[in-house]
Inverse folding.
């Protein structure tokens, strides 16, 4: 049995905050990360230490990387979209330009991009849309057609920057309260988009319940589904064993695997999605 | 006088000497591979492996973790591949890195401990065994071995009888007892060469939104700086009662200062656990900071500082 290991490019560094701007319900934060910017791929995440020295928050916070690039002036930057909902993300969202944060990146798996042009559907829930825009650009660069569906509870929680909208062929919005786009869940609008646009691959990122619902639909249509999962993590580097999900391996055996190492991007059809707080039957070592 | 004083940072774990006293804490260093991306494993005193059991274990369902003020609760449930796969994969890899290895074992029955010890007795390249007896005894209504002097003794003597050779064994105790000194005395009497103090403290977090316990198992083990005073107290009491028994100290060590505190209480080595989750290179900074503190305080050797808080006041 080969043991999966941590992203071989992962490095720890102090990264300076270049800018931090409020955008609707979110903060858009740009960090100076040197060569890490060349290695980070859409889907990878960053683990950030929060609270400063002596903080009572002892665990890192994981954030999807919105985009990473080398700017024309040679500076390597990483952009994040942060929803300030807990004490850790609030601390991060209140960093001023010039301050530094300690990061470990890039971590985890990335979205796989077919070498041939494809008809792709990208689905994001809430701030889960963050890594999808860089993915959309990469897919477009390969000549793919990219449709996007973004869903959230309410309009203010849809994260869709202007430049993001330009990088897709169509954009569908759903909100639970109907304050923007179609009222309902993303899963309500998927079947018609998959059929109309003859979707060949689905990429998704968002809450577990959404990913589970998308997996059902993807399986029904026989469409490949790469999803980026969100299980709460303590370390982000594979040592704490808290972020596990039951996932079927190539040998057909379902194991509790670390989503920080074998994820966050996983093949949705291999995940045993379950709402119960129990290990599903048949999992190795149950 | 210009002198080239070299500080002796080495420490002894029973009859084994390691070049410095900083170790990983069991269950907080993955397979070692993950941390090796951040520093050479041979730079620390030893890698303590996750507690390995006889058979593969899925561990518990999620949520397995909740952050708490200056700490965290976990309920991993000893997820792991089981001893056979572990011996085939993990040990040779750690040895190839030049890491010194302390294998942690855990059982559900006294017989499990005996079998694990037999499987390990002939394995080369192991520095010591840590026997995690802070796990539920399925033959005794799930009561934790380490919480009862009789079952604590039975588990340790099963290992002692079956390990053969000279491999030192360290009994890892739970702080969730009324009198940790009596448990310590019992396991030393049963053949433990040393002690590892402390394991996590049982706790619970209730989510005030869902109004249910946060963890799937409801309770979990509390670790991190929040438990450091409990660790210092336990180590101090046990070292006072058993001054010649080496103690691997742990519980909330996040800096060289914290490590120094446990050493003053009586620890011969320090394991770093939760701090690694917040900082992959925590063990290395703690190692460097502790060394500077000891030199600054005028100690010529690490050994002199062990239990220094127990000296007579003058
Ligand atoms: C996620 C996690 C997993 C752990 N797994 C084990 C284990 O397998 N065996 C063991 O003896 N202790 C285990 N522990 C306890 C630690 O080794 C250590 O005793 C405790 O966490 C206190 O140290 P710390 O505050 O530095 O983490 C675990 C602790 C944590 C946080």
């Amino acid at each position: 049995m080969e043991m999966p290991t941590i992203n071989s490019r992962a490095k720890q560094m102090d990264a300076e905050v270049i800018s931090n701007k409020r955008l609707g319900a979110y903060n858009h934060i740009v960090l100076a990360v040197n060569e890490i910017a060349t290695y980070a791929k859409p889907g990878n995440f960053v683990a950030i230490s929060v609270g400063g020295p002596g903080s009572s928050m002892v665990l890192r916070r994981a954030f999807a990387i919105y985009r990473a690039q080398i700017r024309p002036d040679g500076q390597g930057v990483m952009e994040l979209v942060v929803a300030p909902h807990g004490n850790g993300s609030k601390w991060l969202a209140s960093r001023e330009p010039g301050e530094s944060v300690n990061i470990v990146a890039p971590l985890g798996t990335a979205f796989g991009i077919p070498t041939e042009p494809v008809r792709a559907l990208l689905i994001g829930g809430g701030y889960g849309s963050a890594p999808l825009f860089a993915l959309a650009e990469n897919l477009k660069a390969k000549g793919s057609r990219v449709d996007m569906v973004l869903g959230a509870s309410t309009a203010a929680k849809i994260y869709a920057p202007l430049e993001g909208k330009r990088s897709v062929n169509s954009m569908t919005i759903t909100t639970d309260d109907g304050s923007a786009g179609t009222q309902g869940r993303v899963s309500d609008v998927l079947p018609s988009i998959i059929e109309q646009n003859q979707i060949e691959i689905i990429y998704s990122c968002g809450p577990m319940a959404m990913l589970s619902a998308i997996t059902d639909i993807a399986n029904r249509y026989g469409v490949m589904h790469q999803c980026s999962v969100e299980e709460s993590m303590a370390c982000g580097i594979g040592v704490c064993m808290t972020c596990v999900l039951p996932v079927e391996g190539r040998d057909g055996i379902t194991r509790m695997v670390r989503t920080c190492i074998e994820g966050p991007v996983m093949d949705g059809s291999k995940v045993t999605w379950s709402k119960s707080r129990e290990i599903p039957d048949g999992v190795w070592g149950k | 006088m210009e002198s080239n004083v070299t500080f002796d940072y080495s420490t002894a774990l029973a009859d084994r000497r390691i070049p410095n006293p900083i170790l990983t804490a069991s269950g907080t260093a993955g397979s070692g591979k993950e941390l090796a991306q951040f520093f050479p494993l041979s730079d620390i005193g030893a890698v303590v492996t996750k507690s390995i059991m006889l058979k593969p274990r899925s561990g518990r369902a999620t949520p397995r973790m909740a952050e708490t003020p200056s700490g965290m609760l976990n309920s991993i449930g000893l997820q792991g591949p089981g001893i056979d796969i572990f011996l085939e994969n993990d040990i040779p890899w750690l040895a190839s890195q030049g890491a010194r290895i302390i294998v942690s074992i855990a059982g559900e029955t006294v017989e499990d401990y005996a079998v694990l010890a037999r499987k390990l007795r002939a394995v080369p390249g192991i520095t010591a065994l840590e026997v995690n007896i802070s796990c539920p005894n399925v033959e005794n209504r799930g009561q934790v071995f380490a919480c009862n002097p009789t079952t604590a003794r039975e588990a340790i003597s099963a290992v002692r009888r079956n390990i053969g050779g000279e491999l030192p064994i360290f009994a890892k105790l739970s702080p969730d007892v009324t009198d940790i000194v009596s448990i310590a005395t019992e396991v030393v009497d049963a053949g433990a060469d040393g002690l590892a103090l402390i394991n996590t403290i049982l706790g619970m977090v209730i989510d005030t939104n869902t109004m249910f316990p946060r963890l799937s198992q409801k309770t979990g083990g509390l670790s991190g700086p929040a438990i450091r005073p409990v660790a210092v107290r336990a180590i101090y009491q046990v070292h006072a009662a058993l001054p010649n028994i080496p103690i691997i100290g742990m519980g909330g060590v996040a800096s060289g200062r914290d490590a120094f505190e446990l050493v003053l209480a009586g620890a011969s080595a320090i394991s770093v656990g939760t701090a690694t989750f917040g900082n992959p290179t925590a063990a290395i900074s703690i190692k460097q900071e502790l060394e500077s503190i000891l030199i600054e305080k005028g100690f010529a050797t690490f050994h002199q500082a062990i239990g220094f808080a127990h000296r007579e006041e003058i």
Notes: Chain B has nine helices and 18 strands. The mean pLDDT of chain B is 96. Residues 11-310 of chain B form a domain with the TIM Barrel fold (CATH 3.20.20.70). Residues A 240; B 25-28, 50-51, 74, 76, 78, 104, 132, 172, 199-200, 223-224, 227, 250-253, 272-275 surround flavin mononucleotide (CB under 6 Å).
